[in-house]
């Protein structure tokens, strides 16, 4: 059971009392002694919006450790996120994700289907590209599995001719038609 709540840092003594209170309410002592286990309660506190978002994503995702127990249920839970809340919030926001991060702004554009540099619509290709080819181009990670590749080199300007081929003058003995001599 994972619970996220608004709060603050708790001193060790107050935290121990709170953990004992939660244990007594969720699992009576008689049952805990009967099964030989007690509830493990972990407490973490952070002010970092990125850490809070990570916890929200972790808490709301379905965990299924033993797929052999119920394979159809495990497949149904794959990628599922669930969340619920109690009460309403009437106060000002406690924190928010800002769009000041360069990677975050680029990722927002990609999710809208717009190239983060050129601003043109992205044409998605369903065929996977081997990671070795992507890695060889020194990609820039913009998050969520998306990478920004360097611009493709434009073709050389003008017509390029190999330097070892020259036009022979008309009277040259080496110049002849393709007929057999």
TrEMBL record:
Protein known as: Uncharacterized protein
Record region (Disordered): 153-181
